[in-house]
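Lay summary. Proteins are chains of building blocks that fold into shapes, and those shapes determine what they do. In this project we predict the shape from the chain. Here is one chain we studied, written as its sequence of building blocks.
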Amino acid sequence: MLFVIGAFCATYYRTSLRRVRRNARDDIRREMALKGLETDHESLEWINSFLVKFWPIYAPVLCDTIIASVDQVLSTSTPAFLDSLRMKTFILGTKPPRLEHVKTYPKSEDDIVMMDWKFSFNPNDTADLTARQLKNKINPKVVLEVRVGKGLVSKGLDVIVEDFAFSGTMKVKVKLQIPFPHCERVEISFIGRPEIDYVCKPLGGDMFGFDINVIPGLEGFIQEMIHSNLAPMMYEPNVFPIEIAQMLSGNIDKAIGVVQITLHSAEGLKNPDKHPGIPDPYAQVSINGRDVLGKTETIQRTSTPRWNQTFNLIVSSLRDNIHIASYDWNEYRKDKDLGTALFALERLNDEHVHENLALEVMEGGRARGIIHADVRFYPVLEGEKDESGQPGPPPESNTGIAKFIVDQAKELDGSKSLIGQLNPYAVLLLNGKEVQISQKLKRTNNPIFPDATKELLITNRKTAKLGLVIKDDRDIAADPILGSYQIKIDDMLDLMAKGQEWYNLAGTSSGRAKMRLEWRPVALAGPSAVGGGYVTPVGVARIHIQSARDLRNVETVGKSDPYVRAVLSGVSKGRTTTYENNLDPDYDEVLYVPVHAEREVISIEVMDRQSRGSDRHLGSTEVKMTEYMHKGPDGEYLTHDEKSPIAAPLKLQGKDVPKGVLNFTCAFYPIVGVEEPKDETAELDDARGSTDIRKSSDVRKSVESRASLDKKAVNGTADEKAADVMKKLDAQEQTQGDVNDVQVSKVPKIKLTAESLDQYESGLIIFRLEESQLAAANCHVEVLIDDFIQPAYSSSRARSKTTNFNETGDAIIRELDVSRITLRLVQKVDTKGESGDGDEKHVFAKLTGQTLDVLKQGLYQTVPLTIKGEDGSTNVVHVNLRYLPIKMQLHPSESINNSGTLRVEVHDAADLPAADRNGYSDPYLKFHLNGKQVHKTETQKKTLHPVWNETFEIAVNSRTAAKFSVECFDWDRTDSDDLLGTSVIDISKLTPFQSEEVHLPLDGKSGTVRLKFLFKPDYVAKIRQGTTTRIGTFAEPGKVIGAPVKVIGKVGKGASFLTKGLRRSGTKKEADNPIPSIEEPVSNGTNPPSAAGRALDAGSITPSHRRQASMGAASISPSIAGGVGHGVGEFGTASFTIVSATGYEGEHVQISIKQTGPKGSKRVHESKKAKMAGEGAAHAFDEHSETFRVQCTADTQFTVHVKDAHTFGADKDLGDGMLVVSESGNAPTTVNAGQGTVVISSTFQPSGDAGSLISSVNSPGSRRNKFLGSVRGRDARSATPAE
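And here is the predicted shape, written in a compact code that computers can read:
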């Protein structure tokens, strides 16, 4: 046993010792190798062995590539006294270059790789060559042909360079990065001067040529010339950088946006001469003092010139400075420099707009005056990144930067040259105006243009045309045209999408050109832009958001608060209601998204609402419009109305596994083509784009590079010469087969007039905001339509009281004859799009009117709209309107007839079953709408035939989908209440504006309930759903646009949701009120029963679909905002007089009146203390001192608060009541407030100059005083107009 233990220990010892020795040996070798890397060199024989086999294969290809590239460069650099320069031969030989050794630096930074490479290229060293390699050896040789003379009288001379050798040491530094291609930059530099040897024979060729290096002193001179040129580029410490990442991404010198500079004026300009006189100043704009990019007009004899001219500069970097140089114009001598003002573009990184700048003019270190200017930066619009982090398609815009590139031409017609070889160059055109001329090449019929590229600012893409003219350079005679081509930008983008690169030239028997176009949209504003880059949609996508299931929960406590939004090109176009604390919301809402092209992709995102900070993503899915947009034979888009259900999994960026499902449908409805009056935007742009330069007699330099824009090159500003060129190009354009390939049949159009507007129910209203005179600066103009919570459009911020927006937006109109449009001024835009949630604290002026009447006044013309502020201020906004009908039949559930206010009179019940031992019951009723209790009656004791005589009103979002029911209970003091019976009420069959009395049988043992209904159609805006919902027992059931929710008559405990915030803790009872009966509406020409009030056909309605308040239908929008205004009824002045108060026990009763609005309650009047006239008598008020006026709308609600006022101590609340202006007439109105009543008399006087858009545009016709006035039946309208 002892022997076995000893053997085991010995074996374990030997094994452990062997392992320790091996590890120590490895550590020592590793440390020695690491130290050796810093001092020793590593042999590279393995790569030299590879080059010996690879060089014979690769060298011929490399030589051909070098000849093609260098020959093109030499052709453009030929001196004038020579006919041409060409590289005839370039041979690197059969012996490859050799890498001697490499040294690494292991202690460099983690993302830096640094090495020293020793290399040599010595083809004449044959010591290491085999016999076979010596037999097949080819020496390096370069032959350059120099042709002296002109044309036919010319002679080519060969310059030969051969037997060259090269050796040196190069330091290579590689900067690594995490994203692909994982190599950001490579820097190379020579350590010391490399050794260069060669044989040069400039004359005599191979046979008679001699090496010029034998001439004494010449070899050293040439060597010094070579080193002096290479040293600043790549001799240490100088490095030659190669931006690998930028080269692969294609972002080298790419435009990042447009800088717009407006030169207003200057003051105090001084001429430094001894006898200066009064200057004639003008200014020039440039980047870093280089090429002049813009020049103002010359103002004669003043030191305070006013220019008011705008220049647009295309920039690729914000690291430069704008130079504004001022000069004194002289007629016969050189203009005098008055000084230069600088603006650092780096300031635009933080703030894109800098207005009212006072830039100091400096000359010789002294101040020479001040230039007043505005500088704005409009960045290139980028597409939203997808789940993989790749950018999506950019948003559609009518303005942007077009990079026009002509790479090369082939097979040019050489018969136009006597020698068969041409000297071609390219001329790039924009709307017939020359914008770029390439270098002139020599003796080639297949030119490769190195600089035929141009970045152009396009202000109207749909009319802009690009042109190419290739000419043959002739020294004396006029240059003949070898071929031309002209194409619209949109057509060229379509052809490029199909993969086309080559275009056959027109006006020639042969020849084609390779052209490319890069389009980068820019939301340009100001006088140069046409509509702020707005692109007219071709149709509308209708997205019906049905429900979401099993959503991601991102909350620590509780559940997510989800809502759904539709995003197009990174801009939110609409959103749904927020469902709080719910992972399985049922939205059933419709969003409309205007689309502009088949390639667009709509992103449907589910978001988690956050009260603070940015909302969080819960997942998203995409809708590709290519699946829904298809053209017919006539070129028109076809309607796609299948509405197939889609259950899309929700994916989150960075998460591989989707979480949650979104159920929705999608349909596409095209827009009807409309013949519009002649578009005057080109003429307007011409007048504005020239910016008064035409007034100056000076010659303006035509410059429009990637950092500039010459005003004469902007659309529509071509001169007479350009017009002639345009005519020729237009004539030849008809013969271009490429353009004909993208041309489609002419789409039929209709002629739309103000009289024919009401024939088209649904459409798209397009509005252009122009000049405005505002009462306050730093505000936004928002446009809202109907019950959409999110504004259809929010303008950019007006930084001054007088602003020219020049912005265009659009909005969907579902029912034109009942639609309402609202313009409002806000001081702050709600980026969450929820300002409609009863919060309009930033709104200071608002104007509402009928969309149809506004369209009739502003169709194809500019009209001023006057918006009255809350403080009485006047704001005028000029708006130009268009209307495009949509081929869509509106679903009945989306009609205004499907939503509104339901008024219910609870009369009585009969033959109820007995639930108590005494043979009677204590009945009361509960009313439920969509599972939420909306009203509860009082309990009638000991009766089987109760009489309630109560009335209440509720807002109904969708009659077709509403589940309205009544339950009858027997009240018990100690036990739970017994259910006596229920009945379901079908409110979809109610005729609008007609009261109907019904007897509802209960499903219990017996009994019927007698009710009376009156349904008034109106838009209902739902804001939020969930645990803090405003729909339910303890919340406001909804907001009726133009008709507030109210309780009429006796209100029991079940209606506490209506008195929340109106009643104090001390009031538990309410006095009985006489029950007003529901009268039939009287047709007086302004509110007929048939106005949008025809009964819905129950058979044609799908009960599973209902419309709720969607928030969207917006186009290009700079920001997301929200909020429908409160109280959009008729605007005017309400007069109130507090008469008396009865039934209160307090000694000194005081009454305060508060105006209820979206901002909350605002006290508008507080009465004096009134003493009781006698025991049990009323408290009387002085009618003269208790009369006051309030500017409001006809449907504004007021809260009447009664309290017992005490001089010392706290006041005692006696109750609250509600007063609605629209129900107030000249007769006194009794308001129930707590245990007593208050008598208030009131009158309402409509205002003719506020609250209505129609009055602001001076409508000559009769005004639609009522919401549904003069509304025709639906039969007279056409959803798809006849062509």
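What the prediction tells us: The longest strand covers residues 153-176.
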